Amino acid sequence: MTTAVRRFAASCLLVLLAAPFAAAQGITWESETTVSGQIEKQRYHYMPGMFKTVSEDNREMIMRMDKGMIYSVDRGKKEYWEMTFEELEGVMKKLQGTMDARMAEMRKQMEGMPEEQRKMVEQMMGGASGGKDEPISVKKTGETKTISSYPCTKYVVTQGKRDVVTMWTTREVKEFQEMAKEWQEFGKRMAQLTPTVGKAMAEGISQGEGFPVRVETGAMTSVVKTVRKSVTPAAEFAVPAGYKKVQPEFLEEMQKEKGDPGQ
Fold first, then answer.
1. The whole model's pTM is what?
2. Which of 25, 65, 21, 67 is closest to 44 using CA atoms?
3. Fewer CB in a 10 Å sphere around the end CB: N or C, the chain?
4. Does the pLDDT value for residue 76 go beyond 90?
5. Do 137 and 157 meet the contact criterion of CB atoms below 8 Å apart?
6. How confident is residue 14, by pLDDT bands cut at 50, 70 and 90?
7. CATH topology of domain 3-258
8. What is the DSSP string of the chain?
9. What is the side-by-side strand order in the sheet with 27-35?
10. pLDDT tens-digit profile of 192-213?
11. What would the mean pLDDT of 38-67 be, rounded to a whole number?
């Protein structure tokens, strides 16, 4: 998987993690995500019908549920791209088809590997090693610990025979309320964009009995650090004037790999 595609898939998972925060008022929170040893910080802003993530590299992902649109804004380059949710889902289905074909080929190669080497490769592949249609189960363990000052309970999400997501949830985040209908629908859509892990994560969040403070999946670990009520101006959920519209990097790389001139 190319760097741009991997970055975008990770962004989708981070957005999915934010879904449980939906509430009537605005909310802002911050988290730290570790991917393969690299730490990245994110800030999230939510207002009814509008949501965005802000990364350290001046990139923003804006979700407009009220318009059915998703925008990616690069403030450093003063560029952006936009898609409807339907368009994005179509692109990700193509990507998933390519990934499934590669995983099938990899699994065939793994059959001839020594057991120790095969297990190592399976661990590196994580939840992407196929089986996206296998049953998902969510188990509440008896393990508890304090994370970011919140008492948390451990849940493990299993798909088939694999543990694909581990999450620590708390009931002590006072801003956590019943998810709004728009976020329930949005969470399902985001799960479809990353079906292998996203579906398992969506199930874990829905059955986790609280707000997920820490989530671990494959090489990615996300930990919420702070949460506060806030009102974010509507202008913050729009593309700044004068920015240049471009094609998504991940789409360009997909087209280069397949030699496809169009979407």
1. 0.69
2. 21
3. C
4. yes
5. yes
6. low
7. outer membrane lipoprotein receptor (LolB), chain A (2.50.20)
8. --HHHHHHHHHHHHHHHHGGG--SS-EEEEEEEEETTEEEEEEEEEETTEEEEEETTSEEEEEETTTTEEEEEETTTTEEEEEEHHHHHHHHHHHHHHHHHHHHHHHHHHTTS-HHHHHHHHHHHGGGSS-TTS-EEEEEEEEEEEETTEEEEEEEEEETTEEEEEEEEES--TT--PPPHHHHHHHHHHHHHSHHHHHHHHHHHHHSSSEEEEEEETTEEEEEEEEEE----GGGGSPPTTPEE---HHHHHHHHHHT-S--
9. 136-147, 150-159, 162-170, 211-217, 220-229, 27-35, 38-47, 50-55, 59-64, 69-74, 79-84, 244-245
10. 555 556 666 666 666 667 778 8
11. 89
With the C-alpha atoms ordered 252, 254, 257, 260, is the resulting torsion angle positive or negative? negative
The residue type of 133 is D
Please state at what angle helix 85-110 crosses helix 115-125, rounded to 10 degrees.
170
105-126 pLDDT, tens digit per residue, is 777 777 777 877 766 666 555 5
Place of tokens 């009995």: 209
Pair of tokens at residue 62: 């804006």
Rounded distance between C-alpha atoms, residue 172 and residue 110, angstroms: 45
